[in-house]
Queue: 2 jobs
Job 1
Amino acid sequence: MIKATNINKFYGNLQVLKGVDLHIKKGEVVSIVGPSGAGKTTLLQILGTLDTLSNKNDSSLLINDEDVTKMSDKAMAKFRNSHIGFIFQFHQLLPEFTALENVCIPAFIKGTKKEKAELRAAELLEFLGLSHRLQHKPNELSGGEQQRVAVARALVNSPSVIFADEPSGNLDSESADNLHKLFFDLRDAFGQTFVIVTHNEELANMADRKLIMVDGSITR
Ligand code: ADP
Ligand code: ADP
């Protein structure tokens, strides 16, 4: 699913990623842990094509067998919207739209027709236990519910891989537990691949594989 070879990232003279190699299989749930400043977010953003690496010429990043480092910006944006889903610590839902509408947005960007997008969004929200919340706006939902709406939004285009950066960092422990179980339910139901940066030990240890990142390298 993901094959990254020799990923380097510099910010000025500061080398934040030091030749990272990574191979993640389809349907795998992988956690990435490590101290603050280790480069976890930077790595996730590069793997998710939100950021670019510093050494295009002697590296490669294959997602679904396509080398995203060789794509134009436009092709990459299109690829990202169809193949990749993101979940962040702060869900970034649009406050003026309902839960259903928020989930539909990536589908609309992809060009999916309104009826089809809404059907898919409603199905996902139902799967996530939110069928009674379709018409609610974000500020009418609890933190855990808002985060599940963000999960549905990440899934609406059926991406093959989901990148999550501290997805439960802002949730109480019960909502966090529910969200963590959900990732595995989704993987079991739809075969999605998850790459999750987290400080939550329980989530990190539930993963099929836990990668430890220190000072720009995966050490274990
Ligand atoms: P982590 O997610 O493990 O906390 P980050 O990937 O956020 O680590 O950051 C790794 C290092 O890169 C840190 O030293 C951070 O200050 C630096 N860094 C991250 N983003 C930028 C940026 N846009 N410009 C300059 N330095 C950055
Ligand atoms: P976390 O530690 O939660 O992974 P950070 O606080 O390191 O996140 O980074 C938050 C945001 O700030 C990121 O978008 C990152 O790229 C940016 N950032 C981090 N460090 C720096 C820096 N030294 N200079 C500029 N931007 C930075």
Job 2
Amino acid sequence: AERTYIMVKPDGVQRGLVGNIIGRFEGRGFKLIALKLVHATPEHLEKHYEDLEGKPFFPGLIKYMAAGPVVAMVWEGLDAVKTGRAMLGATNPLASAPGTIRGDFALAVGRNICHGSDSVENAEKEIKLWFPEGTVQYTHDLAGWIFE
Ligand code: GTP
Ligand code: MG
């Protein structure tokens, strides 16, 4: 199954949106296969955003992302990368539709509360970067958890 790297950024953690964001991915039917709270170093974040190095907003982006802990997650399921991006909304929250995470909770592009991988290839790269220890294997068998 396809996997994507989803991260609640420091502003999302500070604003108490972790549960809401996790709930959306759970509710949609995706399977959580890795999760941790981590205060990332600037060096680690520069690797995560290496494609954006040289952009005028890059130093501010690293400072923002290093300002507090983030919630790092891997979600698995049908079309996880594209669906995850759709659930986040547009990069600029002002262009994000209501009903998306950014469209419901954010206004500024530099404080857009969540990250999602933009391609299957980048998802695999990001999962290795944030979870070198690997993800968790288990069967997502709902019936056994609802009925005895
Ligand atoms: P991520 O999921 O965080 O990777 O966002 P994205 O894929 O929608 O956008 P992109 O990878 O192009 O940019 C990464 C992050 O840099 C964005 O989420 C913003 O937080 C920030 N960013 C992008 N463009 C701008 C900009 O023009 N100004 C500022 N201040 N921040 C920007
Ligand atoms: Mg991106």
